[in-house]
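Sequence dictates fold. Below is an illustrative record:

_____
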Amino acid sequence: MKSNCRIEIAHIDPETYTSLVNHDLRKQILRTLYSMAKGGPITKQQLADRVGAGYHQLVYQLNNHLQDFWTVKEEQKVRGTRMELIAPAYPDTIFISIGKDNGIFIVDPIANLFGALHKVGTRCDQCSPHESRRCVNHAMQGGCCSREPSETEMALLMANGRKLPFRVVDQAILCALRGIPEGSTCAIEIPCDGCAFMKKFIAVH
């Protein structure tokens, strides 16, 4: 399994965010899907077994409430029946939503972060200052994150509990917020051996 870290930030509407973070089973399904499928697509039965939910209960949640978050990667025929292998639709994406008074809310399934940014933080908070600085320096070399935050943008992050020096996900969130009017996202690629979070994730799993 590669330790490559590609971070994409995408906006989701408040209704989708609320229906997810206020439902423990949906959060568990997403978190488990992202974790299990990091090494390749899985079956719905495998996901149900790991989550500890009934198969039909899991399928109902996938089809009716989480349909935008997963996709069928391949199909196999097993004893005359069709078996779907599924994976996250956007495996590298951290989702954000904007709430009242410019509050930023985050859904990062692989890091098990669901909630207000000022409460749950970001995956980069697990990294040391040295590790974080290395990633920020790489991100600032080009692309949308090469632009220095304005005073207004810095105030927005700090109002959401973020502190200087900002980490790479903070920079990516600002980049994504700039792109909301055009519907664009922000993507950052960190060298394979550079992401301390992904290396820790792989070591655990």
The longest strand covers residues 70-78.
